[in-house]
Design goal:
With 134 residues, this protein is an all-alpha fold. It has seven helices and no strands. The protein has two domains: 10-85, 434 Repressor (Amino-terminal Domain), CATH 1.10.260; 99-132, no CATH class. It is 64% helix and 0% strand. Helix 1 packs across helix 5 (72-85) and helix 2 packs across helix 3 (42-50).
């Protein structure tokens, strides 16, 4: 029985499309040439560029981005923004929020009613008592 690759998400399709654009801009190097540069088998490269079989792994994505001179993080951000601009929901990808806001919210909800400032003052007072003792 034949195995099917995992269903490609909108994001993974956009990744393949973007990588295809990069390949075109690079003069359309052959899959065998890209295999030499990336270490990815040429048949696997063909699958990635033609959106067949399994979706690209993170390592394959990184290797291809770097081969084309692109920062993988920048590429992910660009693809996400492009999809959002087209109205394609990335509901399984968390929205970008300020990490500091998220951390503060987590701390605020985790305090269980404890006055953190009073607790800190108490610790400072205890530390000063311990420092004064010989």
């Amino acid at each position: 029985m034949a195995r099917e690759g995992r269903q490609w998400s909108d994001f993974e399709i956009a990744v393949s499309d973007y990588l295809t654009t990069l390949r075109e801009k690079a003069g359309e190097p052959s899959y065998r040439r890209l295999a030499e540069l990336t270490g990815i088998k040429f048949s696997r490269l063909r699958d990635i560029f033609t959106k067949q079989n399994g979706t690209p792994t993170l390592q394959e994505f990184i290797d291809l981005c770097l081969t084309f001179g692109k920062d993988p993080a920048d590429v992910i951000y660009k693809i996400m923004k492009d999809l959002e601009a087209k109205g394609i929901s990335l509901s399984n990808i968390p929205a970008q929020n300020d990490p500091a806001d998220e951390a503060n919210a987590a701390l605020a909800s985790a305090d269980n009613g404890v006055d953190i400032d009073a607790w800190a003052d108490r610790i400072k007072a205890e530390d000063s008592v311990h420092e004064e003792q010989p």
